Amino acid sequence: NNQTTGEISDRYPVYFVPAGYVFSIWSLIYVGLIAYSFYQVRNNQGQTEEFQTIGKWYLLSAVANSTWIFLWHWNQLALSVLVITVLLISLIGLYARMVQAGWEQGAATRGEFWCVFLPFSIYLGWGSVATIANITTWLYAIGWGGLGIDPVLWAVALLVIGAGFGVYFGFWRRNLAYALVIVWAFIGIAVKQSDVALLVYTAGGLAGVVLLLALLG
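^ that's the sequence the OP posted. Answer follows.
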């Protein structure tokens, strides 16, 4: 529809959206998905129980991702919220299967870690951020008043929620990759909202906290 994802995002002045360069993480995600696909085929992993379950969740995520791109680029924000929620649920289901297989606890082989666990950890991290950003953009588009609360304060609350996810995965579950995605997004938000001091300090401070706790996890 002659639009980029970042251009559409920039059209809505919501405070949780990061700077345009942050969306380049999609390139890393797609490289990871290609690595997963080749690894599964090359090693005939599709026949194992773990990969059969992962494959089902991955198929759902792929359909949701593709559908979301069309909806977003054709400005169907309400439907995009529904679909990105499906995408996030599929990534959570996929991650839960990897945890069940013991990969989060270090049971993954080198190939499973680099080609499956790491790419989907990054994907889940970005999916978490993107879902919050998508919902806030839709609420702005429909003119939601935020219950009379200052939009900056809403953004601060969302940053705290996002940081909570980062701490949970980074510290409690020792998933540095997920935490780094949160840090990447928060720095991008601080850059994007550089004229709003409260958001710059909040996003930067929380990014530091998430990174520190993830390194200590």
